[in-house]
Write a structure and sequence with these properties.
The chain is built from no helices and eleven strands. With about 120 residues, the chain is an all-beta fold. The chain starts with a strand and ends with a strand.
């Protein structure tokens, strides 16, 4: 069975950093482009960042996080990461990782076949 499990969420002070992890199992990880999405209360789920399959050379970011967040992957560990720097209150949300193999990289949620259960991020001060 395919599973994506996020971790690393929690409370962070505005301006500080937090790193989310997504461990995948049951699939050939290197063949999948990985994406990060988030959903805040009362808002639609939105694209955050994505990294291409294989070497992960190509990275896409939403305008709201570009320059602050970094997406990466470690194929040896079947893990994708989202490093959140200089966090703000607007970053508070449930963060989801997702996997798709149709394209090398994508920001379109409907193309992602597998999803994690989400991890909560809150921002204080």
């Amino acid at each position: 069975q395919v599973q994506l499990v996020e971790s690393g969420g929690g409370s962070v002070q505005a301006g500080d950093s937090l790193r989310l992890s997504c461990v995948a199992s049951g699939l050939t990880f290197s063949s999948y482009g990985m994406g990060w999405f988030r959903q805040a209360p009362g808002k639609e789920r939105e694209f955050v960042a994505a990294i291409s399959y294989s070497g992960g050379i190509t990275k896409w970011y939403a305008d709201s996080v570009k320059g602050r967040f970094t997406v990466s992957r470690d194929n040896a560990k079947n893990t994708a990461y989202l490093l959140m720097n200089r966090t703000t209150h607007a970053d508070a949300a449930v963060y989801y990782c997702a996997a798709q193999e149709r394209y090398a990289i994508s920001r379109q949620a409907f193309l992602y076949e597998y999803w994690g259960q989400g991890t909560q991020v809150t921002v204080s001060s």
